[in-house]
């Protein structure tokens, strides 16, 4: 049995009167590609934000590789090998592709001073160059990120998350608004990375074709709670899931 990389235990989060996440628990094992699906407003992004310290859950605990990470800052999580993408693009449009990736690495290191005043260390630059190659962005590396197509920017966004190291990468709607060709690229790159590095992924995504073919296991949220969990084929055939989400 593979070890647990991410353990989410009894997470709840309320905003005013809205209970966005209701007592959610799950485990993700090393090397797994877990899909997190559900209707808009079902609590997926809130759950990510609770797992990653952007939000403080009302209740519950999160463990990465067995260590409690509740309330940890993004750079401290990155030091533990955890990277993420946000639902909204977080690239800097006026910086080059390469500099965006390097900057992500500096943020993960928490080296704000070097980010502002210094040159990035050689290790970071080398790592960024490798990711530029891996994500097939080399021909664009000196281009401003804002000049890239939306799909290329989403790929860059993913590359930036990988600067965390990473044991675990959480991707919030990486395929949203991305055309079919780029979608294929993204899926193939994630699968290759997973195979080569045994990196664990948790992927929020609405594109069912993408999520069903990428993920080994799927968790379905509805109104903040888990309503189903299983292999893609089981999820596709689950009547409760069809009623709450897939059928619509
Ligand atoms: P999803 O990512 O599945 O679409 P969200 O986690 O974004 O869902 O939202 C879950 C619920 O929590 C929604 O009802 C949403 O309106 C609410 N919500 C999310 N973030 C906030 C916030 N910062 N303040 C108030 N309500 C929020
Ligand atoms: Mg969301």
Automatic annotation (TrEMBL):
Gene3D superfamilies named among the record's database cross-references: P-loop containing nucleotide triphosphate hydrolases
* Keywords recorded for this protein, A-Z: ATP-binding, Nucleotide-binding, Transport
Cellular component, GO, one term:
plasma membrane
**Mind telling me which SUPFAM superfamilies this protein's record contains?**
P-loop containing nucleoside triphosphate hydrolases
Domain ABC transporter as annotated: residue spans:
6-248
Instruction: Report whether Transport shows up as a keyword of the record.
Output: yes
Q: Does the keyword Nucleotide-binding apply?
A: yes
PANTHER family membership: CONSERVED COMPONENT OF ABC TRANSPORTER FOR NATURAL AMINO ACIDS, CONSERVED COMPONENT OF ABC TRANSPORTER FOR NATURAL AMINO ACIDS-RELATED
Q: What is this protein called?
A: ABC transporter ATP-binding protein
Lineage here is:
Bacteria, Pseudomonadati, Pseudomonadota, Alphaproteobacteria, Hyphomicrobiales
